[in-house]
Design a protein that fits this description.
Length: 65
C-alpha cells in the first residue's frame, strides 16, 4: 500500500469504523458495563500502528505523553 493511501486511511479512521472492523474480525466483544461506566481516558489514548508486511493496523491503549 502506498504511503499516500495509508495516510488516507489514517485520515478516515474513527471509532465507529474501528469497532465495525474489529467486530467483523473477532465476531463479538463482551465488555462489562462497569468497564464502560468507569472508563477514564484523560491519561490514555489509542495508538494506531501500521504493519506494511501484512497490511494490518494494530490498535492499543497507551499512556498519554
Amino acid at each position: 500500500m502506498t504511503e499516500a493511501k495509508i495516510e488516507d486511511v489514517y485520515a478516515q479512521l474513527n471509532i465507529a469504523r474501528i469497532l465495525v472492523a474489529a467486530l467483523e474480525t473477532l465476531g463479538e466483544i463482551s465488555v462489562p458495563v462497569m468497564k464502560i461506566v468507569d472508563a477514564q481516558n484523560e491519561d490514555k489514548e489509542v495508538q494506531v500502528d501500521y504493519d506494511e508486511s501484512n497490511q494490518t493496523f494494530t490498535f492499543k491503549l497507551k499512556i498519554k505523553d
